[in-house]
Design brief:
Belongs to the HAD-like hydrolase superfamily. CbbY/CbbZ/Gph/YieH family. Helix content is about 40%, strand content about 10%. It is elongated, with a radius of gyration of 17 Å. The longest helix has 17 residues. The model has no long low-confidence stretch (mean pLDDT about 95). It is of the alpha/beta class and about 220 residues long. It has two domains: about 140 residues, Rossmann fold, CATH 3.40.50; about 70 residues. Strands 5-4-1-6-7-8 form a six-stranded parallel β-sheet, with helices on both faces. Strands 2-3 form a two-stranded antiparallel sheet.
Length: about 220
Amino acid sequence: MKTVVFDLDGTLADTSADLIAAANACFEGLGHGALLDPLTDQLTAFHGGRAMLRLGFSRLDRATFEADVDLQYPKLLKHYGDHIDVHTTLYPGAEAAVERLLAAGYRTAICTNKPEGLAETLMQKLGVRGLFGALVGADTLATRKPDAAPYIACVEQAGGAVETSILVGDTETDVKTARAVGVPCVLVAFGPEGPGIARLTPDAMLNSYDDLDMISEVLLK
């Protein structure tokens, strides 16, 4: 069965503003104010909570802060979980594109490095969890992307076949994952890095979700 596997953050949904708000809540709780900017630091948000905390603490000109990152990370996750969909929205056309794939007989799934519980909550709140036959997060298995195991498990749980699947993502991690599995990789041109992500030489670039049907058909012919 042909399967399209999606990354979540920066691919299906723009989650950056809520992620940065969670990091800033940690800094504000320590009396530092908002150390991250929702626009200029957007790309860092998609590298995870610890990356955001490190960036913020680095702006305090402190020599070491890993202990602070470890201490604040659970607080970041708690704040984010409590405010997970304040600003987050699906990218234009994403929901309709997935619905078209399902109508055409494809299986669809999500493979993300977001903790599974948070990913499940977000998809439920956005009202689209039922469109995906499987969801594998960062902590679902013992390994995470770019290891091949989460992707393979995701496809199998969705009822698909790995050899007739593609990965749609937005980062180098997604490219490395696809290469590890041996499947085509499509990168979105509207994610955090924009069209410049083409530097990673994916098998295709997705400029709009309106084009996903055609790209999927070509790569999975």
